[in-house]
């Protein structure tokens, strides 16, 4: 059982973030209504079970919500090599022109210059193809660089939109459907480029956003194109040996202005999802408003921007479990997850949410992480 322990601030290992999750708690479909999920309030001494529509009760008029406005690409394509072998292609990034960086699932990769015939959703004359150009980002890269083309000369975004599939997470067992095409996007998704949704924001609908507006809660946007690396397991017990995946982010000037105004009026910066946390804290570390980030947030991290977090429940032994433990405290997170499992909350991308406050670093260092 994933139970609290008497651990003060210390050096954590991978095993510290493990827990047993009953498989039937992994949500396979979204709630009937976007805001119809449950919300675990983790801000008090004891966990409090709420409905997501009660989120406004946890916010203040001076608060600023930071959303990730990335849009998920239809990044999964299927096809076959010239030898007939099946191929699954997951496009991570569009590099410019007709080139993409992608993951390949194939028994034996094709040679450089080899072509993969991709399945077309429409007429055969419109069928796309992918030509292997090499590794990405360099000769030792873990992904592949390919040219994605068709006879009509369409760009990769258009080809994915027409022939690709929603890249559902590996723990969702069904193939993508029309429901997924709608519900695995946020209502404010704008910037195309992600292969996974910023799932905490999936709970928001127009009615709830209007209620927040009426309360005087502000909102602003960042972009972080979530990569497939978000689902990759940590393989080393020593967390300092883990190589964090890289993701592209951007913070527009109006969001920087909104953050400054929020601080001036005494409000809180509330990150909607861990991708917003990673974006804001990457900017705080580097001073760059646009770039690639490999920030790895573990207990002991000193947060510069984020005061509170709305997030879903995360995979055992994942970097996201480490991030929420860094923000809210290791023992408090263990207790919240134990409660969530006992109360049968729904987990992962289509699951329920929880609301957390940041605990200051000195609380960890003085042993009050309990």
Features:
370 residues, alpha/beta, QueA-like, Thrombin, subunit H, nine-stranded mixed sheet, 21% helix, 25% strand, disordered C terminus
Write a structural description.
The chain has eight helices and 17 strands. With 370 residues, the protein is an alpha/beta fold. It folds into two domains: 14-72 and 180-365, QueA-like, CATH 3.40.1780; 76-163, Thrombin, subunit H. Strand 9 and strand 10 (143-149) form a beta hairpin. Helix 6 crosses helix 7. The longest helix has 13 residues, at 274-286. The model is unreliable at 1-8 and 361-368 (pLDDT under 50).
Quick synopsis:
This protein is α/β, with parallel strands linked by helices and 370 residues long. It is built from 8 helices and 17 strands.
The CATH class assignment of the largest domain is Alpha Beta
DSSP E strands, number: 17
SS class: alpha/beta
Report, as a whole number of angstroms, the end-to-end distance. 17 Å
Q: What is the makeup of the main sheet?
A: 9 strands, mixed
Measured as a percent range, the helix fraction is: 10-25%
> Which overall shape is indicated by the principal axes computed on the Cα atoms?
globular
- Compressed to H and E, one letter per element, the order equals EEEEEEEEEEHHEHEEHEHEEHHEH
* Count of folded domains: 2
Please state the average pLDDT score.
93
Tell me the CATH topology of the largest domain: QueA-like
């Amino acid at each position: 059982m994933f139970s609290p322990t008497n651990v003060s601030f210390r050096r954590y290992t991978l095993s510290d973030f493990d827990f047993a999750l009953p498989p039937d708690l992994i949500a396979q479909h979204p709630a009937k209504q976007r805001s119809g999920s449950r919300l675990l309030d983790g801000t008090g001494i004891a966990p409090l079970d709420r409905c997501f529509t009660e989120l406004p009760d946890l916010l203040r008029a001076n608060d600023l919500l930071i959303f990730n406005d990335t849009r998920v690409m239809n990044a999964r394509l299927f096809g076959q090599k010239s030898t007939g072998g099946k191929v699954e292609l997951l496009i991570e990034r569009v590099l410019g022109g007709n080139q993409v960086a992608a993951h390949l699932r194939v028994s034996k990769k094709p040679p450089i210059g080899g072509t993969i015939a991709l399945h077309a959703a429409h007429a055969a004359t419109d069928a796309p193809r992918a030509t292997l150009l090499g590794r990405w980002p360099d000769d030792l890269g873990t992904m592949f660089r390919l040219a994605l083309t068709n006879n009509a000369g369409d760009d990769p975004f258009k080809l994915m939109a027409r022939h690709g599939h929603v890249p559902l997470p590996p723990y969702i067992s069904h193939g993508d459907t029309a429901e997924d095409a709608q519900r695995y996007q946020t209502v404010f998704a704008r910037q195309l480029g992600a292969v996974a949704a910023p799932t905490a924001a999936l709970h928001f609908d127009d009615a709830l956003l209007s209620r927040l507006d009426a309360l005087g809660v502000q909102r602003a946007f960042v972009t972080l194109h979530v990569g497939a690396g978000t689902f990759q397991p940590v393989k080393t017990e020593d967390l300092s040996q883990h190589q964090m995946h890289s993701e592209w982010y951007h913070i527009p000037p109006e969001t920087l202005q909104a953050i400054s105004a929020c601080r001036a009026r005494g409000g809180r910066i509330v990150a909607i999802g861990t991708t917003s946390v990673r974006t804001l804290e990457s900017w705080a570390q580097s001073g760059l408003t646009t770039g690639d980030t490999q920030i790895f947030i573990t207990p002991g991290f000193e947060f510069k921007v984020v005061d509170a977090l709305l997030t879903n429940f995360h995979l055992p032994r994942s970097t996201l479990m480490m991030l929420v433990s860094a923000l809210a405290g290791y023992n408090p997170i263990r207790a919240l997850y134990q409660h969530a499992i006992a109360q049968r909350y729904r987990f992962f991308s289509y699951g329920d949410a929880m609301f957390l406050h940041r605990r200051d670093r000195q609380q960890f260092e003085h042993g009050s992480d309990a």
